[in-house]
Amino acid sequence: MAQLSDDCFAFGGPLRPLDETAALIASRLSAVDESETVPLTLADGRVLARDLVAPLPLPPFTNSAVDGYALGGDDLPRDAEKTFAVVDRIQAGMSPHQVVTPGQVARIFTGAQMPEGADTVFMQEDVRIDETGRIVLPPGLKRGANVRPAGEDIQMGEAVLPAGQRIRPQDVALAAALGLTGLEVRRRVRVAVFSTGDEIVPPGSHRGPAQLFDSNRFMLMAMLTRLGCEITDLGILADDSELIADRLSEAASAHDLILTSGGVSTGEADCVRAGIERVGTLVFWRVAIKPGRPVAMGVIKGTPLIGLPGNPVASFVTFAHIARVAILALAGARPQPSISTPLRAAFSYRKKEGRREYVRVSLRNAGDGSVEAVKFPREGAGLLSSLVATDGLVELGEEVTRVEPGQTVQFLTYSSLL
Ligand SMILES: Nc1nc2c(c(=O)[nH]1)N[C@H]1C(S)=C(S)[C@@H](COP(=O)(O)OP(=O)(O)OC[C@H]3O[C@@H](n4cnc5c(N)ncnc54)[C@H](O)[C@@H]3O)O[C@H]1N2
Ligand code: MOO
């Protein structure tokens, strides 16, 4: 079909490249200042406010990695079996009772502190007990075997988690292992969320014949929750730029970010841009990304606003690649570029040069041990089923113009985008 306006230059000037857009956002937004201490049970997903330095080594004491017998390395059998007297029994949590000297072993259990004089442990399966109750050890074990030295995991004073870390379950475990009961985290980013459009009504309300139930607001709030934000749900705004301007202006004073969906394209009823310009300034509008080209950013009374396009897939993709950058910057999180995985395409595709495209795909086993990406059969940015039925997005760079089956493409899981 004939294309009347060239994508890249319609409405004046080339579209802004996605990487440049993300860099602009990250450089313009600074992190919220305030922090709070939260108990470890509430720390998952929060952003660490300052570097965490280990107040003790891990493990804190040298201990046995197995159930067995501990002895000094100089006493290890070299060429033939050797017999030893058992002089101690050390269970986990108990301090050793005596020094182990040559000719002696201590019975020891996994996690128990190593006794003085011992630096090696035989696994109990590898030893024999003779008729007098003495322990017979075979030759061949190396000094230091089956022992976990103090500090082998973490040294005291080591920086173990950097400020800006989005705390994960394993980070919580580390803090607990270091004896901490809470972590100092940045306060949550406060985000106001609006849907826009006269055709949008809330689920559960009466829907007129030409109206749609609002799905974007719920998708965006779920995505914001995954990013640890404090959300204010401000409902649906009618297509009226004066009203939109008033509501955006009100929201700006109490939030770190305003997120809208819909109303950023070129139609007369696309009032979000007009609303931004009434009470603030437009930072950018239109990015070289598909879906999601009409995405906009503005600033209202110092508060950033990201206007996502209304089509649900465009909203999803621009949230993941643009709004997320803003949220992480405001949250004080270290930038987290999404790491894509190379996979084999099982589809052919044509695209325009000069814009980044995200293609919805499902993964399947190719049968030869590799995994391949199967494209969702339809492309509309309004197809929610396309997001629900797929596993992630194939990212096609600005320079790409075609994909053929068998070609290597870069895949991003949906979970890696949040
Ligand atoms: N003449 C042109 N028309 C359009 C262009 C263009 O460049 N020239 N761009 C198209 C692209 S690309 C997109 S994306 C859409 C986005 O436009 P808007 O952000 O202004 O979105 P709306 O027009 O308000 O809505 C688009 C579509 O999405 C539905 N929608 C909106 N909000 C919701 C919601 N909260 N939940 C579910 N669905 C929603 C809305 O009903 C429309 O069907 O513009 C193209 N047009
Ligand atoms: O690019 Mo729009 O964002 O098609 O849906």
CATH domain class name of the largest domain: Alpha Beta
Q: Which parts are unreliable, with pLDDT below 50 for 5 consecutive residues or more?
A: 1-12
The total number of structural domains is 4
Give me the count of strands: 28
By CATH, the topology of the largest domain is Molybdenum Cofactor Biosythetic Enzyme, Chain A
Beta-strand percentage range: 25-35%
**CA-based shape:** elongated
Q: Can you list the strand order of the major beta sheet?
A: 7-4-6-5-9-8
Tell me what you see in this structure.
This protein is of the alpha/beta class and 418 residues long. The chain has four domains: 18-34 and 188-331, MoaB/Mog-like domain (Molybdenum Cofactor Biosythetic Enzyme, Chain A, 3-Layer(aba) Sandwich); 39-56 and 157-186, Molybdopterin biosynthesis moea protein, domain 2 (Alpha-Beta Complex); 63-148, Molybdopterin biosynthesis moea protein, domain 3 (Molybdopterin biosynthesis moeA protein, domain 3, Beta Complex); 341-412, Beta-clip, CATH 2.40.340. 19% of the residues lie in helices and 29% in strands. The chain is built from seven helices and 28 strands. The strands form eight sheets. The chain has a six-stranded mixed beta sheet, with no helix packed on it. Helix 1 runs parallel beside helix 6 (312-331) and helix 3 runs parallel beside helix 6. The longest helix is centred in the last third of the chain and has 20 residues, at 312-331. The chain is elongated. It starts with 17 loop residues before the first helix and ends in a 5-residue tail after the last strand. Bound molecules: ligand LQZAQKY5 and molybdate ion (MOO).
